[in-house]
Amino acid sequence: MTIDFYGIPNCDTVKKARKWLEAEGIDYTFHDYKKEGADAGRVASWIDAKGVDVVLNKRGTTYRKLSDAEKSQADDPADAAKLLVENPSMIKRPVVEHDGGLLVGFKADEWEAALA
Fold first, then answer.
1. Rounded distance between C-alpha atoms, residue 94 and residue 92, angstroms
2. Topology annotation, domain 3-115
3. Which of 1, 58, 66, 78 is the most buried (most CB within 10 A)?
4. What pLDDT is attached to residue 100?
5. Which of 51, 28, 31 minimizes the C-alpha distance to 39?
6. Phi, psi torsion values for 30, nearest 5 degrees
7. Does 88 score more than 90 pLDDT?
8. Are 63 and 57 in contact (CB under 8 A)?
9. Which pLDDT tens digit goes with each residue over 66-78?
10. If you count DSSP H runs as helices and E runs as strands, how many of each does the chain have, helices first?
11. CA distance 85 to 7
12. CA 23 to chain centroid
């Protein structure tokens, strides 16, 4: 199984998810979108697959610091994708692409069902 894992290494949720993958013996390729950036096409495909409400982290400080006008951009999927590419810390973490689909966020039971 091929797993591409997207996140930020110092995020606590990302750390938990990586530990879970390692405990399960599942290999993955880690993509740090703080250093590597977020690919616009990939982010748009995540939004198409899961919806803006799942991919956009509205609880983080980066989102909360946006102006009302910037927050209103998040209602349109194309504008939301641009906003997330410009501010990758607003992407809910982690995002995992695997042969069977896409996981956004870390819930051990969902990951167990999808990956183990």
1. 6
2. Glutaredoxin (3.40.30)
3. 66
4. 85
5. 31
6. -95, 130
7. yes
8. yes
9. 999 888 888 888 8
10. 7, 4
11. 13
12. 21
Element (H, E) at 102: strand 101-104
Q: How far apart are CA 91 and CA 6, in angstroms?
A: 10
Residue 2 has pLDDT above 90, yes or no: no
Residue 7 DSSP symbol: E
Q: Which amino acid is at 96?
A: V
Residue type present at position 113: A
| Residue 18 near residue 115, CB atoms below 8 Å | no
The 10s digit of each residue's pLDDT in 7-66 is 999 999 999 999 999 999 999 999 998 899 999 999 999 999 999 999 999 998 989 999
Task: Delimit the domains of the chain by residue range.
Answer: 3-115
Question: Residue 34: what pLDDT?
Answer: 86
User: Which pair of tokens denotes residue 37?
Assistant: 């950036």
- Measured from the Cβ of residue 59, the count of other Cβ atoms closer than 10 Å reads 8
Owner of token pair 């009302």: 68
Instruction: Count the Cβ atoms, other than its own, within 10 Å of residue 39.
Output: 15
Integer Cα distance of 103 and 54 in angstroms: 10
Side-chain-side CA neighbours of 86 within 13 Å: the count stands at 12
Question: What's the one-letter identity of residue 60?
Answer: G
